[in-house]
């Protein structure tokens, strides 16, 4: 989408958020821009294809509303967000506790092409692992667990390096100058990954209470 197209989409999204169940004509008249009706209709179709809005009704009675996936798929520009004064920012005061049970349960985050690509990756993974001996597969998974635990914890602010993470997970050697909580975070990541590998049936469905049993603290 071009910069102009992104601007149009943003204006239309804002209007629909403030005027739910609106028609394309209402959107065109309400946004007060010099865009033709056909241009607005094209932008609406793009937003529909990106699953940011949904249709209600059919034909001339078609209305538009924000989709359940909007909060999950809407692009975010962090630099632009933090340029605003704090009073101007759209801040969420609470965790979205219904994200998994309500939103993710009823929508698909992936397009058909993305699903096909993921299926292809899964097929390649199976092909590459079928010939591995149990010991080889275990070593490959251990390497993955170390990398994933390190990167995931780093996102949360953990200061362990990749090498320090490897020593902790393989030799139980904590890093000098690091907090106990940082070590526990990494150990918990590894414990959960080990549990999933050893108990694949628990993934359907995967629940927090079950995983907590197998974490360090």
Describe this protein's structure.
The chain has eleven helices and two strands; from the N terminus they run αααββαααααααα. The protein has a two-stranded antiparallel sheet with strand order 1-2. It has 217 residues and is mainly alpha-helical. The model has no long low-confidence stretch (mean pLDDT 83). The chain folds into two domains: 3-104, Arc Repressor Mutant, subunit A (Orthogonal Bundle); 112-213, no CATH class.
Short overview:
The protein is mainly alpha-helical. The protein has helices at about 5-20, 25-30, 35-50, 70-75, 80-85, 100-105, 110-130, 135-155, 160-170, 180-200, 210-215, and strands at about 55, 65.
Write the layout of secondary structure elements.
Blueprint: H1 3-18, H2 24-31, H3 37-49, E1 53-56, E2 63-66, H4 70-73, H5 78-83, H6 99-106, H7 112-130, H8 134-155, H9 162-171, H10 180-198, H11 208-213
Query: Tell me, what's the shape?
Result: elongated
The chain-level structural class is mainly alpha
Helical content stands at: 55-70%
Strand order in the largest sheet: 1-2
* Biggest sheet character: 2 strands, antiparallel
pLDDT < 50 stretches: none
The CATH first-level class of the largest domain comes to Mainly Alpha
The averaged pLDDT comes out at: 83
Question: CATH superfamily membership of the largest domain, which one?
Answer: Winged helix-like DNA-binding domain superfamily/Winged helix DNA-binding domain
Count of alpha and pi helical runs:
11
Strand content: under 5%
- How many independent structural domains? 2
Q: How would you spell out the order of helices and strands?
A: HHHEEHHHHHHHH
Rg measurement, Å? 23 Å
